[in-house]
Structure prediction request, 237 residues.
Amino acid sequence: MVSLKGQTAVVTGTSSGIGRAIALELAKAGVELYLVGRNRARLEPVALAAQELGAEAVCQVLDLTDDAPVRGFAAALAGSFDILVHSAGVIALAPLSQAALADFDSQYRVNLRAPFLLTQALLPAIKEARGQIVFINSGAGLRANAGWGHYAATKHGLKALADSLREEVSPDGVRVLSVFPGRTASPMQEAVHRTEGRTYQPERLVQPVDVAEQVVAALRLPRRAGVTDLSIRPGTL
Ligand SMILES: NC(=O)c1ccc[n+]([C@@H]2O[C@H](COP(=O)([O-])OP(=O)(O)OC[C@H]3O[C@@H](n4cnc5c(N)ncnc54)[C@H](OP(=O)(O)O)[C@@H]3O)[C@@H](O)[C@H]2O)c1
Prediction:
């Protein structure tokens, strides 16, 4: 396994769930972090936890649907950095016959358009470092069940973006990983259970740390190999 110590990462969605767990796993590996989210009060405890693990962590308050601040953040980073993890995401469930167009728009903007814009803005710096990009996708990015259409469409789009980008940047030494988690214990999954009228039993689901450990293991693979797609499903408890 390759050491990530001293590398720099931007992680979105770090105030909660999977993004938070990935940030802390990277902190354990000695990576310096930019923690992206909309709310400083939700980011600061994560920064503190990362610092307690020995990592430098900077909170970056950013709504990823606002283009100018996203571009400004990327410009301010300048130089090179090593790892970009897209974990920010939103979900709304409804059959197409009842779905609100506004929900389709908001999922498109956060789940697909924002990773497109942020990747584009940071790509020169990532290429400079021969770095790595991780897209937290979803099982819904591979299979669209009834009632999941507009969320699944954004995640299918995200898979396409990652697949195409991988071919574009692998000659530059940049690795691209798509992660397809199944139901993972987080505030998002709790909301999904509420919508579906199911009892939320987080202990029976994938834990954010399970996803985070696999992501960091993939990032630490020697460059002679590369994980392109990673599916993680709830096991059989
Ligand atoms: N949990 C699951 O079962 C599951 C399964 C498959 C895939 N996923 C995917 O995994 C990723 C993480 O999900 P999660 O379960 O960890 O969700 P979560 O706990 O609800 O966290 C979502 C994160 O996204 C951030 N976010 C949302 N809108 C944003 C915006 N406009 N600008 C910046 N940040 C924004 C939130 O930050 P603030 O609200 O603090 O700004 C929060 O940190 C998502 O892409 C999701 O689609 C989740």
The two ends are 30 Å apart (CA to CA). The CA atoms of residues 16 and 145 lie 25 Å apart.
